[in-house]
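Cross-posted from the bioinformatics board.
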Amino acid sequence: MRSSEVVGLYGTDAPADRQRRALTSGRVPVAVYGLGKMGLPLAAVYAELTGNVTGVDIDEQVVETVNAGGTHVTGEPGLADLVSVVTADGSLQAVNDPSEAAEAARLHVAIVPTTLTEERRPDLAALEAVVESVAHGLSPGDLFVVESTVPPGTCRDLVEPTLAAASGLDPDEFGVAFCPERTASGRALRDIRGSYPKVVGGVDEESTRAAALVYDELVDNEVIRVSDTTTAECVKVFEGLYRDVNIALANELALVRDDLDVDVVEAISVANTQPYCDIHTPGAGVGGHCIPYYPYFVFDRVSGEMPLSRAARDVNDSMPRFLAETVVDGLQARGTAIEDATVAVLGLAYRPGVAETRASPAIPLVEDLSSRGARILVVDPVLDGASADYPLTPIEELERTDLDAAVLVTNHPEFGDLDWESYDSLVCVDGRDALVDLPDRHDCYVVGRGPN
Ligand SMILES: NC(=O)C1=CN([C@@H]2O[C@H](COP(=O)(O)OP(=O)(O)OC[C@H]3O[C@@H](n4cnc5c(N)ncnc54)[C@H](O)[C@@H]3O)[C@@H](O)[C@H]2O)C=CC1
Ligand SMILES: CC(=O)N[C@@H]1[C@@H](OP(=O)(O)OP(=O)(O)OC[C@H]2O[C@@H](n3ccc(=O)[nH]c3=O)[C@H](O)[C@@H]2O)O[C@H](C(=O)O)[C@@H](O)[C@@H]1O
């Protein structure tokens, strides 16, 4: 496309309908940085809308797979077909090198990982690398959108100043907006297309306007404009904090289940029958690189202690230890020492069907049981050897193994086919209230429900 036909949205005085037509006819070239669980679906939806998207990923295998019309992201209904269509018709191409894409694009969308360091400080290295690359290709009129979840103040204090300094442009020559990705693995396309209102906040009015125009076209739901990027950043991390604290309340109630001698899960579900109560589900712990990470994005930006949110993190992080202690107690009750036991840990990924192990509660559980001397078999049907933190035992091998105990951490559907009849007598700890119809000879403890 001749560069003269290419337009930027930020600061243009073209009528809004002409801007929309430019976007949907491909005259606002888009670059999406990060083609992972969220980035690839997002790039595909942008490609479907604009016909002119370059996806950038540092992983050569990802780029090769996408350009061959394939997808490395599994468990996403509709994604494989969509990627195949948009790569075949040229709407989406993938590259490793960000510089060319940054030069050509007028709309830059960053959706690279934002994680934590070992010291649980925000790790924005991937985003910083993208900002540096884009800066060298930034043109007046460009719009830089951050979809990665970031600590409040990141767009204002890091993204905009770095873009200005490295590009030599004045901040009022380009736009920066934060438009959080309110999407969950397993329903990414549906969520990206508009399961929920899209939140948009810019570093200035014009950035908010331009970003709102883009997402008005991209999503089938309301676009909510907020005061600025920091407000939009807070919306996203507040959602995560809310979830983490409410899961912690459910877990705290599960931890006192034996004293109360009630089915806590039953009491929670009935308590939730009136609209002012939304206690979440107790479980094996909180994993993924979202919910357990976002509180630290906020802790890092405030001087206050935030005791409630920190305590919630501690409660959720205590669940793997509770599971381990329940296994030890169950084995002890039948005269088996943990150091003589073989224990299967079912589910290493943090969520069913999602090939992601970051912050998975299975990891501290495996470490805890191993430190007590147990022999551990880790079973996870969605992970391959390369993506797992431990050697994996295939499900079919499990039934031929002389097990003493099994702990369900993540309820992959494949575990529904496990033949519990094939084991003599097990200690079972069900971290997801998912194991049903186990033979009575097994001693089963369900988190929140107690022994059955
Ligand atoms: N996974 C989820 O459920 C959700 C994630 N998010 C946010 O989206 C962001 C991305 O998350 P995921 O897609 O799950 O991550 P992911 O780990 O699945 O994928 C990240 C991709 O970015 C690539 N990458 C890393 N550094 C790069 C760089 N400098 N330039 C280009 N590509 C680079 C990686 O190779 C990988 O393919 C994170 O900030 C996360 O907080 C937001 C909502 C939901
Ligand atoms: C409100 C909501 O559903 N947020 C989603 C969430 O996605 P995520 O993949 O992190 O899954 P999740 O359902 O929050 O689960 C996170 C972890 O918490 C555990 N979990 C979840 C809910 C619950 O009641 N109890 C519980 O123990 C899960 O087992 C998992 O280990 O976090 C994403 C994010 O914020 O990045 C967000 O975009 C997604 O929409």
